[in-house]
Every structure is written in structure tokens, then in C-alpha cells.
Amino acid sequence: MERRKFIQHAGLAGILATGIAPAVRAESPAIRWRLASSFPKTLDTIYGAAETFSAKVKEMSGGKFEISVHPGGELMPPFGVVDGVQQGTVECAHTAPYYFFGKDETFAMDCAIPFGLNSRQMTAWCYDGNGFSLFREFYKNYNIVNFPMGNTGAQMGGWYRNDIKTLEDIKGLKMRIGGFGGKVLERIGGVPQNIPGGEIYQALEKGTIDATEWVGPYDDQKLGFQKVVKNYMYPAWWEGGPQLVLYVNSKAFDGLSAENKAIIQAASSYAHVEMQAKYDARNP
To answer: What digits encode the pLDDT tens for the residues 232-277?
Structure first.
């Protein structure tokens, strides 16, 4: 027997005799999460932010952390995502916080309020002011860990079946309007309706509502509002820079390693910047 082979066999025999197996590095188990969006899949901007986030999480984790993205209505109603994350039905969600101001008006502050902050100001407040930490405290009441994840920038004032020339034209107007702006509309005689984005076209077509606002030309054309009503107005004083947010179930987040927590934060920040850039480019 050659000397080298003898040493190899002798080494193996020694290991077996002592009962000690060679050390094997254990691979971290793969993580699979689900994200419930409040938005329709047709919108590559606002819905697309969640897809960007998911792709970045997978990329930065080397494929060990995957998050499937589901459009509004697939896993739960578009306005049911806060309850879904709070109860742990899904690990995370992407939504506009002002949809939930009926639970607590504080939700609207994390998105947009009439005559509030613009997109840059909102980002500055959250990332370099104390907005982020204030909302971390607030969302503890809902078992949620929050991350800013997108902004549309200033929005259009909406589509109207009839031209609006005076305040008298607002009286009795049934308008789909998100968030706290509906409270202002109500005070001047309008009738606010909180309707998910994927259901607005049907409501306009059937005459259930007389007007609607969404975001701006790029998204609005995709949703087809111009096929039903012709009066388009600007600006939306109630949405100077509405911020979108990633909600993560606190128990699910606490169960992550420090590395994966950092990946969530980095991926959501990337998606935040990209979404703002998309809207600026598509609605110049």
C-alpha cells in the first residue's frame, strides 16, 4: 500500500474509532414569507414596489429568504391587511396607512394629510427626523414593525363626471377619496367613499360614485378612468406626498436573525427610493 493511501485510511480509522464525525457547517433553513398588498397587480408603480422589495430580499439573502407578493383581494381584502399582519395571518403587507384612519387617525400621519408634507419632506421626517421612531411606538399597539416603502409624490385632484366650478358643485358629490381628505370633503358637502384601487373603475362605470382620485396620469390611465369620465383636475391638496409603508408582524420580525432584519430594512429603503423615482419619471 502506498504511504499516502495508508495515512488516509489510518486517519479515517482513527476518526471512526473515537466516534467523532467531521464537523459539517449547518445551512440556515430557508425562510418563506407572504406579503399582502392593498393594490392591484396592474400597477407596476405602487404594486411594483412590493415586487422590488421581494426581489431585493431574495438577492441579498442568496435565495435563502423569499417573500411572495399577493395583490389586493388574493389573500385578504385590500383594506384588511392591517388586521392580517396584526393577527399573523401574513408576515407582512404593503399599503397606504391612511386607509386605516378609521381605526385611529394617527394612521393618516404616516401617509398624507390635507396640506401636509411633500414627498421629500416626508422622507426627511421619517429618516432624519423623529417620524420613524414615533411610528415605531404607535405600531406596537398593532403588533407591527413599520418601514417606509414608497411615495407617489404630489397627486392629481381626480376625475369628475361633471365640471367643478364652485363649492356648490361639491354638495352631494359622491367621491372616492382616500384617507383624511374625505373628512374635509364631508365638511364642504361631499360624500366620501373609501374604495380600493382595483374596484374604482367599476364604481365609476356603474354610477355608484360621481368622482374619484387615485394618483396621477400614469396609474389613472392604466385603471381606465378616462374611458368613463372626462374632467381631470389638479392638484390634490389632500395628498402632497403620500407615503406607502411596509408592515411586518412583530413576532415574525423578532424571529429573524440580525442579518435578515438588516436585509428587510435595506430592501424596503431601496424600494422606497425606486418607487419615488418611478412616479417622478412617469408623471413628469
So the answer is: 999 899 999 999 999 999 999 999 999 999 999 999 999 999 999 9
Can you list the pairs that 180-188 forms with residues at least 24 positions away whose Cβ atoms lie under 8 Å? Answer: 180/98, 180/101, 180/105, 180/108, 180/112, 180/113, 180/114, 180/238, 181/112, 181/113, 181/114, 181/236, 181/237, 181/238, 181/239, 184/114, 184/238
Cell, residue 278:
418611478
C-alpha cell recorded at residue 62: 442568496
Amino acid identity of 195?
I
Place of cell 384601487: 197
Report pLDDT digits (tens) over 73-92.
999 999 999 999 999 999 99
The conformation of residue 247, written as its DSSP 8-state character, comes to: E
Q: Is residue 10 part of a domain?
A: no
Q: How far apart are CA 217 and CA 224, in angstroms?
A: 10
Instruction: Note whether 128 and 247 are within 8 A (CB).
Output: no
Number of separate domains in the chain: 2
Distance CA 201, CA 36 (A): 22
Cβ 271 vs Cβ 53: under 8 Å: yes
41: closest CA among 84, 94, 109?
A: 94
Residues 147 and 173 in one domain: no
Closest to 46 in 3D by CA, of 229, 237, 239, 238: 239
